[in-house]
Write a structure and sequence with these properties.
- This protein is an alpha+beta fold.
- The chain has 19 helices and 23 strands.
- The chain has a six-stranded antiparallel sheet with strand order 8-7-6-11-10-9, sandwiched between helices. A five-stranded antiparallel sheet has the order 2-1-5-4-3.
- The termini are far apart.
- The N terminus is likely disordered.
C-alpha cells in the first residue's frame, strides 16, 4: 500500500487529542485495506491448496532438490527439499526430506549428480532415461532449475520405467530369438541356436536343452564357454529323485550354489561340481501335465539369479519347445504330405495356397493376422483382391509364368489390409504338382517386410542427399586437378606429374561412383527419366567398343554386327550400359584375351551381347548379381573393385526401355551379358 506524506497543515492538535491524523487516509480506507489483505490471504491459501492438490495428484514422482557442490564447484550430492505423495512408491525411499542422496544410497551413480549439477549451473532443462542401480530402478526424468541461479535448486519430474524397460529388453531378446529360429527346421539346429543365444545374452558359461524321454534326460547339444567340457549325454532320472520331483512340479527353479543347494541329490551335486555347473536356472517344459523337456542356463561360479533373468529363460524354454515340436511336426508332415511341403516349412510366416485362378483355398493364422482378416473372410477373397492396384500386373505376369512353366519365383509387392492400410511383403511362390507332374496350385510363403522397406526408403533418401551434396565439391576438385595437370611444365619432377595423374584418375573413379549413387537414388524414387528417340545401334556400339579398347592393352575388343532395325532408346543411358558391360568384361578377364560385342536382329527384338572368356559366374549367383550392392565374394584375382551398382543400374535402364537383360555364364570359361530391346515401330 502506498504511503502518504503528511503536510504541516494536515497535522492538528486539540480536538484530535494530540494525535497525528492523515485526513487523506481515514478509517474507511483502513477497513478497505484490511479487507484487501484478507482477500489476498484467502486467495493465497486457495492457490497453495490447489498447488498441493495438483502436486500430490501426479502419478509421477516429483521432488525439489538442492544440489551441493564442493569448493571446485563440482556436484557431490543433493538434498531433498520437497517431495510429492507418490515419491516413496516411485523410489522406495522413506522420509527423504532434509536428507541427502549420499546418506540414503551411498552407491548412487555419479552421473545423477553430474546431470543435476549441470542443470543447476546452466539453467538448461534436460529429459533423459537412466538406470539407478543403487535403487534397483530405471527412470524417465525431466529436470529443470527453479528459483535463483545461485540457489542450486532443481525440480525433478520422474517415473519408474523399470518394468517397461524390462519388457522392451525381453521383447528385443525374443525378436532376436525368433530371427535365429526362423530359418531353422532341424530340431538339433534349433537347440544349438537357442543355447548359444541364451548363453551369450545372459552372460552364462553353459546352456543346454534336454528332452525327457523314457525316464531319461537327453542332452543332444549344449553350448559352453571355451575350456569347459560338454555335458551332452543321456542321464537316467531314477538317479536323481529330488530333481525329478522338482521337474514334475513344472515350476522354474534356480540353484544359486550347487555346494549348498538343498534341492540337489548328492549324486547330482557331485556331477554339477565335476562339470563346473555351480549355479543354474532350470525351466521344465510341460506337456499334458508331465515334463517333456528342460532348458538350463548355468554358470561356473555362484550367482544370484534375478527374476527378469529367470523370466527370460522361461520364455526361451517355451519358445524352444514350440520350435522343436514344430520342426518335428513339419518333418513328419513333409514325409506324408508332399503336396503341402512348401506350405509348412515356414510356419512362422504367412502361408497360403491358391488355385490357378488365384482363389485362396488355404491360409494360416499368421497370414490372417498380417492382413487383419478372419480366416473364413480371407477364404472368400481372390489374391488379386488383396494386392495393391499398381502391383497387380507385375504379380499376374509372374504367376502366369509359374502356371505355364512350373517355375517358382520370389516377389516383393504390396498387400492391402482389411482396414485399407498397405504393407510390403516378400512372397516365395512355389508350384504344387499333381500326380501327372502338372501345376495344379501354388504355395505362397509371405513375410511382412514393411519395416525393412521403411529402412530402405530412409537409406535411399540418405544416399540421394549425400550424393547430391558431394557432386558439386568433387566437380570442383576435378577442375582443379585438370588445371594443375595443364600448368605443369617440363621443370616439374616426373614424380609430381605421376602423382597428379593418379590423383585425377582416382577423382574420375569417385565421380563415377557418385553418379552411380545418384542413379540408384533416382531409380529408387522412380525418377529415372529417358530421352527416347529412334537409334541405330551399330554406330553407338562401334563408338563404345572403340572407347573400351582405349582403356586396355591386354584385351582385344571385337564388334560383330549386322544390319539392324532402329530401336527407341536414350543414347546416353544406352551408352552407359555398354560402357559398364565392356568394363566388366575387361575386369573379370584379368589375364586378357578377346572381348566380343555382338548385335543381331531377333524378330521384334534386337539383341546385344558382350562376351568375355574370364573367370565366369557360379550358377547360384547369376540372378543375384543384378541386385543392388551385390558383388561376387569369391574372386580369384582379389583386385575386382566396385560396390555392386553397375549391373543393377544397367538392368533398370534396360527395363525402362521395356527391354530385358540377363547373363549366361560357365565358371572358368567366361560370361555373356546381353540385353534385348523392342524394335521401333511406326506407331512409336
Amino acid at each position: 500500500m502506498e504511503k502518504k506524506i503528511l503536510a504541516n497543515e494536515d497535522i492538528q492538535g486539540g480536538d484530535s487529542g494530540g494525535l497525528l491524523v492523515d485526513r487523506g487516509f481515514g478509517s474507511s480506507d483502513l477497513h478497505r485495506a484490511e479487507e484487501t489483505i484478507r482477500h489476498q490471504q484467502q486467495q493465497l491459501y486457495r492457490l497453495e491448496a490447489q498447488y498441493n492438490e495438483l502436486f500430490n495428484s501426479l502419478d509421477e514422482g516429483f521432488c525439489i532438490v538442492e544440489v551441493l557442490f564442493d569448493r571446485h564447484n563440482d556436484p557431490i550430492d543433493y538434498r531433498f527439499l520437497k517431495v510429492n505423495s507418490v515419491f516413496e512408491a516411485q523410489t522406495g525411499i522413506e522420509n527423504p526430506l532434509g536428507r541427502t542422496m549420499r546418506e540414503i544410497a551411498p552407491e548412487h551413480e555419479q552421473h545423477w549428480f553430474d546431470t543435476y549439477g549441470r542443470i543447476a549451473l546452466t539453467g538448461e532443462p534436460e529429459r533423459f532415461e537412466h538406470r539407478a542401480e543403487a535403487l534397483g530402478r530405471f527412470y524417465d526424468v525431466y529436470a529443470f532449475r527453479i528459483g535463483n541461479p545461485g540457489d542450486g535448486r532443481v525440480a525433478i519430474l520422474f517415473k519408474d520405467i523399470a518394468e517397461r524397460k524390462r519388457r522392451e529388453e525381453l521383447q528385443a531378446y525374443l525378436l532376436q530369438l525368433s530371427d535365429a529360429l526362423r530359418p531353422l527346421s532341424d530340431p538339433i539346429q534349433i537347440q544349438e541356436a537357442v543355447t548359444r543365444l541364451a548363453m551369450s545374452r545372459l552372460g552364462a558359461d553353459r546352456c543346454f536343452y534336454c528332452e525327457i524321454e523314457a525316464g531319461s534326460a537327453i542332452i543332444r547339444r549344449d553350448a559352453f564357454r571355451e575350456g569347459l567340457p560338454s555335458v551332452a549325454n543321456v542321464y537316467p532320472l531314477t538317479h536323481f529323485p529330488m530333481l525329478t520331483a522338482v521337474m514334475n512340479a513344472g515350476r522354474p527353479f534356480a540353484v544359486y550354489d550347487a555346494h549348498t543347494a538343498e534341492i540337489l541329490d548328492e549324486g547330482l551335486r557331485q556331477l554339477c561340481i565335476q562339470s563346473q555347473v555351480i549355479s543354474f536356472v532350470g525351466i521344465p517344459v510341460m506337456k499334458d501335465g508331465n515334463p517333456c523337456g528342460m532348458l538350463c542356463v548355468a554358470c561356473c561360479e555362484p550367482r544370484k539369479w534375478k527374476a527378469e533373468e529367470i523370466e527370460r529363460v522361461q520364455e526361451t524354454a517355451e519358445r524352444t519347445w514350440i520350435a522343436v515340436e514344430q520342426a518335428k511336426a513339419a518333418e513328419a508332415l513333409r514325409e506324408s504330405e508332399e503336396n503341402y511341403r512348401a506350405i509348412v516349412n515356414q510356419s512362422i510366416a504367412g502361408i497360403l495356397k491358391v488355385d490357378l485362378q488365384g482363389t485362396i483355398i488355404f491360409t494360416n493364422d499368421q497370414f490372417c493376422r498380417m492382413l487383419d482378416y478372419d480366416c473364413p473372410e480371407l477364404l472368400t477373397q481372390r489374391v488379386n483382391d488383396i494386392i495393391f492396384t499398381e502391383d497387380r500386373e507385375r504379380n499376374a505376369m509372374a504367376f502366369q509364368e509359374l502356371v505355364s512353366e512350373g517355375k517358382a519365383y520370389e516377389i516383393e509387392k504390396r498387400l492391402v489390409r482389411k482396414d485399407g492400410a498397405v504393407i510390403w511383403v516378400n512372397n516365395h511362390v512355389s508350384p504344387i504338382l499333381n500326380k501327372k507332374g502338372e501345376v495344379e496350385a501354388a504355395a505362397i510363403v509371405s513375410i511382412d517386410i514393411t519395416p525393412q522397406k521403411e529402412l530402405e526408403r530412409q537409406k535411399d533418401e540418405f544416399i540421394g542427399i549425400a550424393s547430391h551434396e558431394l557432386k558439386t565439391p568433387i566437380t570442383s576438385i576435378k577442375a582443379y586437378g585438370q588445371i594443375l595437370a595443364g600448368v605443369m611444365g617440363q621443370s616439374v619432377p616426373p614424380t609430381i606429374v605421376q602423382l597428379v595423374t593418379k590423383m585425377n584418375t582416382q577423382i574420375n573413379r569417385l565421380i563415377k561412383l557418385i553418379y552411380s549413387l545418384l542413379d540408384t537414388s533416382r531409380i529408387a524414387g522412380d525418377q529415372l527419366t529417358l530421352q527416347l528417340e529412334p537409334v541405330g545401334l551399330n554406330a553407338l556400339l562401334e563408338e563404345h567398343v572403340h572407347q573400351g579398347q582405349l582403356t586396355t592393352s591386354r584385351h582385344r575388343i571385337t564388334f560383330i554386327g549386322q544390319e539392324l532395325p532402329p530401336v527407341m532408346a536414350d543414347v546416353e543411358r544406352l551408352g552407359q550400359v555398354m560402357d559398364n558391360l565392356i568394363s566388366n568384361a575387361i575386369k573379370y578377364a584379368p589375364k586378357g584375351g578377346d572381348v566380343i560385342v555382338r548385335a543381331e536382329s531377333r524378330g521384334d527384338w534386337v539383341r546385344v551381347g558382350v562376351q568375355d572368356f574370364g573367370v565366369g559366374i557360379p550358377r547360384e549367383e547369376q540372378e543375384k548379381i543384378f541386385d543392388r550392392f551385390y558383388r561376387i565374394k569369391d574372386t580369384s584375382t582379389g583386385i575386382v573393385s566396385g560396390i555392386g551398382l553397375g549391373l543393377y543400374i544397367c538392368r533398370e535402364i534396360i527395363g525402362k526401355h521395356h527391354g530385358r537383360m540377363a547373363v549366361e555364364s560357365i565358371p572358368d570359361e567366361g560370361s555373356t551379358f546381353y540385353f534385348e530391346l523392342p524394335v521401333c515401330t511406326a506407331r512409336q
